[in-house]
Task: structure prediction
Amino acid sequence: MTGLPATRYRATRRGAQPVVFIEAVTSTNPSGGTSVNVALPPNGQVGDLVVIFTGVYNGNANVPSGWTLIAQTTNGSRARITTMQRILDGTEGATVTVTVTNNDSTVHAACLFRGVNAANPIDVSASNSAAATSSQVTPTVTTTAAVPVGLGLIVRAAASYRAALSGNYTWPAGWTEVVDAQANTSGDPTLATLGVAVRTPTTVGAQGTVTATHTASQTYGAVTMGLRVK
Result:
C-alpha cells in the first residue's frame, strides 16, 4: 500500500458500502379505528433498518413495544407525523400493531434500509409542523462524518390530509420519492396523506431545508433524518 493516500487506504480497507433504500410497504386505516396492523417489508434481513412513518389526521400514534421513537410532531390535533425505527433481528414478525389516540384516518409506510450502522442507525433527526400551506418545509439537520457524502442517506417525510384521489406530494429535483400515499381514495377531505423521499448527501454538516409540494393547502408535520453507514 506504499504511496496510497491514508484516507483512500482506510476507505478501501474498510470496504464502506452505501446505505440504500430497499422497499416500502404502506398500510391505511381510512374509516377510523384506534389500531392498525402495519405490514412490514417482506424482504428484510437481520441487521436492516425499518422506519415506520405514520401520518394521522387527528391525534398521534403510539410506539409499540420493540420499536424506538425517532420524532413526533404536535400541530394542534391535526396532521401529525410519528416516526419510529427498529433494527431487524428475525423476531419482528410480518406486521406490527400501531395504535392511535383518536378514531380517525391514518396512513403508515414501513421503509426498509440496508447498510446502516445497526448499533446506532440514526445520526441526527429533526421535526417540525406548520399551519396550512401547500409548500411543506422539511427541516434541516446537521450530520456528522458518520453520514458521509455518497454513502450515507438523508430521509425526509411530510404528512398532511386532503380530499383528492391521487398525487399527494411532489419533491424537488435530486430527491427520489419512495412513498406517496393517502388513507384511501373515497374523496373524504379528512384523509391522512404521507410522502417520503431520499437522497445521498452532497456535504457533511447542515443539510438545509427542503420543501415538498402538497396538492392541498393544509396543516402538516415533517421530519428529516440522516442514516449512518456501517
